[in-house]
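Researcher: Please predict.
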Amino acid sequence: MKIALLCRNPDLYSHLRLVEAAEIRGHEIEVIDHLRCQVNITSHRPSVIYRGEKVPRFDAVIPRIGASVTYFGTAVLRQFEMMGVYSINESVAVTRSRDKLRSLQLLARSGVGMPVTVFAHRTSKAEDILKTIGGAPVVIKLLEGTQGVGVVLGETEKSAASIIQAFGGVKTDILVQEFVKEAAGEDIRCIVVGGKVIAAMLRKGKEGDFRSNLHQGGTATIARITPAERSTAVSAAKIMGLNFCGVDLLRSNHGPVVMEVNSSPGLEGVEKATGKDVAGQVIEFLERKAKTGKTNTKGKG
C-alpha cells in the first residue's frame, strides 16, 4: 500500500512513529507538507502538485493538519479525496472537529455529556453569561486555542467577569464553560481508532495549574476507563465522523463529559503511558479499510 502522510514537521514523534509503523508492515509512505502543495482544479482530472511535480497515485492518506492552517490543509485533503484516495479522517470531519462551537453543538444535539457551555457575542454582558453558567468558577476558552493555550480559569465572579470583558475588548470570540471541580485537574484522553478505544491515559496538570495538557507540563499515566467513558468516547468520535482521534473526557459527578475531540492527537504521551502501539493500529486500520474511491464525501463540502 502507498500512503501519504500530510504534515508540516516530519520529525515529530507522532509522524516518525506512523512512518515506522507503515514501513515495518511493508508499506510505502511519503511525508508531504500540505502547505507546499498546489491544488490543480481541473475538470475530470484533479491533481495535487508538490514541489513542482504531480503527486503519484496513493492508496490512503493520513492527515495531520495543524490547527492554524486548517482551511488550506483540508482543501488539499479534499483534493486527494476527489482523486479517489482513502483518508482515515475525511476533510469534512476534520473541519467539523476543528470548529469548537460546531463540534459542541453536534455533541449536545446527540445527547453526549458535556459541561454547561455558553457562546455569546463579545457585546454580551459578562454578568448574564455567568448567570447562565451558574456562577464562578468558570473556564474561558478562545475558539482558536490548542494544547491548553488560550484557556483561562475565572475563579471568582469578579475575575471571570474581568477576563470575559478583556477578551471582548479585543474582539475575540470565546466559549465559557462550567468548571468541573471534582475532576481535580485531571482528564482522560481516549484514543479511538475504527470505532474502538484502543488506549487511554489519565493526564494530570502540574502543581497549581488546572490544565492537564502535556504541552503545559502535565503528566500522564495509563487510565482504566469505565464502560460509560468508553461509550462516550466512541460516540463522540462517531458524531464527528472521525476514524482516528483523541477524545478528552472529564469525570464529573453526573458522569463523563466531553471537553474536546482532536482529529490529530499526539502519540508520544499515550504510547509511553500505556505501552500501546497506537501507530501500528492506525496502519492496521488502513490495511482493512483503505480502498480506492471509498470516501463518503468525495471532495464535497
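Model: The chain has nine helices and 16 strands.
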